[in-house]
Amino acid sequence: MAFEFEFAFPLPLGLHARPAGVIQEKAESFAGDVVWENLRNGLAADAKSVLSLVATDTRFRDPCRVRIAGPEGAEAGRELRGLILETLPRLESAAEEAAPAAASDIPRILLAEKAVFFRGVPAGPGIARGAAFIHDPGPGEAEDRSGPVRSPEVETAAFRAAANDLAAGILGRREQSRERTERAVLAAHLAILRDRAFTAKVEEIIASGTRGAAAAALLAGRHFSEMLSASPSPYLQERMADVRDISRRLAARIAGPAAPASEPEIVLSEPVILAAEDLSPSQFILMDKTLLRGLILEKAGVTSHTLILCRTRGIPAMAGCPGILTRLRPGEAVLLDGGRGLAVPAPSAAVARYYEREAAAEEKRAGLRRARAVLPGRTADGRRVEIAANIGDPQDLAGALAEGAEGVGLFRTELLLLGRRSAPDEEEQTALYTRLATESGGKPVIVRTFDIGGDKPLPFLPLPAESNPFLGFRGIRLYERFADLILVQMRALLRAAASGPLKIMVPMVATAEELVAARGLLEKARAGLAAAGIPHRPDVEFGMMVEVPSAALIVDRLADYADFFSVGSNDLLQYTFAADRGNPAVRGLNRPLHPAFLRLLRSVVDGAHERGRWVGLCGEIAAESRLLPVLVGLGFDELSMTPSAVPDIKARLRTLDGEACRELVRGVLTSGLVREVEEALDGFSAAGPSKDGLIVPALVNLRSTSRTKFEALQELAALLEGADRAADRAEVEAALWRREDTFSTGIGFGMAIPHCLSPAVRAASVGVLRFENPVAWDSADGRPVELALMLAIPAIEKSKGDAPAEQHAAPAEQGSLKYLARLSRRLVHDEFRDGLKAAADAAEVVRLVSAALAD
Amino acid sequence: MTLVAVTACPTGIAHTYMAAEQLERTGRKLGIKIKVETQGAMGIENELSAADVRDAAAVVLAVGIPVLKRERFDGKKIYEISPQEAIKSPEALFVRIKDELGL
Amino acid sequence: MMRPEPVPLFVRDLLDESAIIADLRATSRDAALAEMVEAAVRLNGRLDAAGLLANLLDRERLGSTAIGEGFAIPHGKLAGLAGPVVMLAVSRRGVDFAAPDGKPCRVLFLAISSSDVPSQNLSILAAVARFIRRSRELLPRIEAARTAPEILDIIRREEERLG
């Protein structure tokens, strides 16, 4: 019984690899064939193949028909229709948020100077200048290097083994990845590798007997990438790069490590901006980077490993810039603006000056970032809250510390096990944990023992198949059965703790009995080491994750056996609300601001503190700036998060009053509705700045050397960032320009009042520039401007590129708007303007402005 | 003579209030009573009542965007200028109004 | 405008008890500066900790402000300061400050002056450097003191003795 249905394709970005992967997965679960037909162009596909689906070039609102053969037709059809029309649009909007930021507005000076420039995707912030170096290895791609063709059976076996191997590697990396976008890309790679159409094509070529496995993989890769390249969609072109990447890696894997490297080494002799079609991570690692000022790639998403490596080293980069290899002249000077995703060849003097100032502002920002990294996490009133990082790879430790992490709140060890045929032995683990202990610079590192379960099957750990692994045999529950594995890990941890401040934490504890048993294992490990005379630290702190409500409710009793606690909020949330966080239909129930959850957290914190125990939190909510007042108010001693969130959370923490946060939490614990808590939190955040906070000396420069309006607005945005009041300097500058576009803010009298409402403004602010040489501003009276006074206000609703009128002052800003209106009124009084123009120093400007606000 | 005015500008945080202040202080200087409503980022403030409008000799709109509740001024003599003009040369405006209304 | 000749400053006039950290906990340069900045911010809530620390760290990147024999004079300028901020910290364990003589720093004088008064910075640094240079017994005496009042007392007496 076949079943078919028609629909208009609902995703604005068309059917690209991510949704195709979801559809393929569902189709795969049906016994019968599933055929996807795009009625616009007549292209049909096997829905059990991602590549085949993607090749239908299905775009937004294309009429499509899906036909399902086999016994479960009707029911399967309804399921699939629900998936396509309801689930996919929701998944997509979530994925959109994780996508890299689009290029910010182009600096106006480039347009005014009619400069030639190229746009790409911002892939590593920073300004770089260097000679263009074009790396073009030519069209010949890595060819078959596997030697003579063997029998089709042997070659097919070689192909399948290599594909399995590669899939295991990608799977392992995906598990390790903490970044959503990166995980999605790796998942797409995996889907290609396992694609039916792809596999069939490779095996078909092998079966013809003329090609070996490696050559067949390359040919199949070329076949599909040519098919995809026919599409005008940039998404398909990106997938084309993925297909080629996968087929090359597959070919290399088949050929084995003995095959000669095919990628030429890059040798630099002067400071350069390197432009290449693509660059493999190994090419990047091998080259001398002392002369590499910036990197431009024609292809590759911003999640490519090369670009990630580039960012780690602070090298400005831009990707997705097709055709740039042929348009840059080798050796010519190039400016690269990695934050905006712009490359300017042969810049004019004015553009070069603008970018010199941009680089200086960038350096100042980096200095502030370094300073913030050193400053301890504390509230404005001095309450200490440690801000730590969650990591899964010792390689990420240095980066986390550079972001300002005050320790590692969660090191996930199960990643060591993934993609392996046997568990790492004691020596290997000891070496790895020792590296953590020594490289943390004396900062605490909490290592969580293996957190494994049926959802992450391991070849050396026979776990039963479970219908619901998240409520199953996992975490500490399997320590008894796999005591040997855990004993080895605990021995390694005790040994490593001799060289640095390591702590041990066990996962998924539900009862005191489990904790006692785990302590027993630790004791046994200690006794074993002592008996063998192996150096170790006997008194390592031993703590537990609080992820299960049954544990959360008796933390005061668990304190008999645990030295510290850390709330795993991701799991605690889903266990509290009984809602699978992976299930889009119910995950909305998991609201961290729900009073039930807050009461549970309160009982954890109180239980721990009552017994003098330290308590942290290491789930995703620790990174949510909006929730910070609540977490601080609950009394957590530590918050541990993804490293990239550390600087912002630390900065926000310094603006909070710890006592006020406590009051806030006390006030909402008796609520019954999430909405009440949210309103209280928004009201709390809206307390806003006092009039004294609107201007500080750092926002005043009475000796500005800005020569043009371009430089002046650039400087004002930089002042705001330098005073820690802008999340994104470029966006503030763009917002100021959007306002100038309606009509000049030059009001005459030698004065201008540039202003903006922008989500990139962190706090309502007044900035003042007095120019050494008056600046032309297209003023009402044609006079140049001696003094610019900027009003910057935080806005809600981000509208990139479209109507700026869409932005409204954040509700929290009503107070500051009133002050700024007062200030604006003062500006038409000559005495006030003259006072500002004659002010002796920044302090006097601050005094004058503050007095005007107080009127 | 009494006048009423409305000021409004695109962002509603600066020119709206500067224009309002300028109209008020120039009115004081020239001895002309003027009530100014602002339509800025904080919404409508110092709103003109029906009586205000009825008693006014003319309406000044110093605006860069469409005025809210414009129908209130139907049938009144309206002087529409940009907020920049109101800030830059308010006296000229008042002189023009005086001349034209013969006051 | 002519500015009057600066009157020679005394270190004792720049410090009070609350500006002295008798037992600095940090052992690294960056952490030591952060600890002093935090203390300065506690005394003067209007100071911006991150901006101030960035300023000090930038200065150290140009070259160490350690002057040898266990002393360092980290310093920076900040716009809009009402008056200079001077702090003194004593490290019992020593701080690696990349000193020219390689010795760990025991006594740190932190001086932040207003960038609006360019001469202020120089006269403070001159006063501190002159004091350290002339007083041979300063380090052991300060180290022997345990509390902020004791340290301040030693500085006062030493400076008065030197005249």
Structural features, described:
The complex is a heterotrimer of chains A (855), B (103) and C (163). Chain A is built from 30 helices and 27 strands. With 855 residues, chain A is α/β, with parallel strands linked by helices. Chain A folds into five domains: 3-92, HPr-like (Histidine-containing Protein, Chain: A, 2-Layer Sandwich); 108-138 and 265-371, Glucose Oxidase, domain 1 (3-Layer(bba) Sandwich); 152-255, PtsI, HPr-binding domain (Enzyme I, Chain A, domain 2, Orthogonal Bundle), CATH 1.10.274; 380-687, TIM Barrel (Alpha-Beta Barrel), CATH 3.20.20; 691-854, Mannitol-specific EII, Chain A, CATH 3.40.930.10. Chain A is globular and about 90 Å long. In chain B, strands 3-2-1-4-5 form a five-stranded mixed sheet. Chain B has helices spanning 15-30, 50-55, 83-88, 90-101; strands spanning 2-8, 33-40, 43-45, 58-63, 78-81. Chain B starts with a strand and ends with a helix. Chain B is an alpha/beta fold. Chain C is an alpha/beta fold and 163 residues long. In chain C, strands 1, 2, 3, 4, 5 and 6 form a six-stranded mixed sheet that branches. In chain C, β2 and β3 form a beta hairpin. The longest helix of chain C is centred in the last third of the chain and has 17 residues, at 118-134. The chains are: A alpha/beta (855), B alpha/beta (103), C alpha/beta (163). Chains in contact: A-B, A-C. The A-C interface holds A 364, 367-368, 370-372, 374-376, 378, 382, 441, 651, 654, 696-698, 700-701, 722-724, 840-843, 846 and C 28, 30-31, 33-34, 37-38, 42, 46, 48-55, 57-58, 78-82, 114, 116.
Q: What is the number of E strands of chain C? A: 6
Q: Tell me the series of helices and strands of chain B, N- to C-terminal.
A: EHEEHEEHH
Radius of gyration of chain B over all CA atoms, rounded: 12 Å
Low-pLDDT windows of residues of chain C: none
Number of helices of chain C: 6
Q: How many separate domains make up the residues of chain B?
A: 1
Q: What is the rounded distance between the termini of chain B?
A: 8 Å
